[in-house]
Amino acid sequence: MSMESHIAELQRRHAALDREIHDALAHPSVDEVQMTELKRKKLALKEQIERLKAPMSVH
Predict the structure, then answer these.
(1) Measured at the alpha carbon of residue 40, what is the angle toward residues 37 and 45, in degrees to the nearest 5?
(2) How many structural domains is the chain composed of?
(3) Would you give per-residue pLDDT tens digits along the chain (59 residues)?
(4) Is 22 in contact with 36 (CB distance < 8 Å)?
(5) How far is CA 34 from CA 4, 21, 26, 55, 57, in A?
(6) Fewer CB within 10 Å, N- or C-terminus of the chain?
(7) How far is CA 53 from CA 26, 47, 49, in A?
(8) Residue 28, SS3?
(9) Domain that holds residue 15
């Protein structure tokens, strides 16, 4: 898998988590523990994407 396709896959997963968080917030009975976990996963993906992109912008 190329670096670009790997980043694209991570971005796709990040967007899917964003939609899942948005959908969960629309329900009055949102589980705070689950919400925290989803946000943690989303942040971890964002950080991983940024780390992978950083060397690419140096060249």
Answers:
(1) 130
(2) 1
(3) 799 999 999 999 999 999 999 998 898 888 899 999 999 999 999 999 999 998 765 55
(4) no
(5) 30, 9, 14, 33, 35
(6) C
(7) 32, 10, 6
(8) coil
(9) 3-58
Start-to-end CA distance of the chain, whole Å, equals 20
Element (H, E) at 4: helix 3-25
- What share of residues in the chain are helix, strand, coil (percent, to 5)? 85, 0, 15
What's this model's pTM, rounded to 2 decimal places?
0.82
C-beta separation of 3 from 49 below 8 A: no
Q: Cα separation of 14 and 11, whole Å? A: 5
How far apart CA 24 and CA 34 sit, in angstroms, is 9
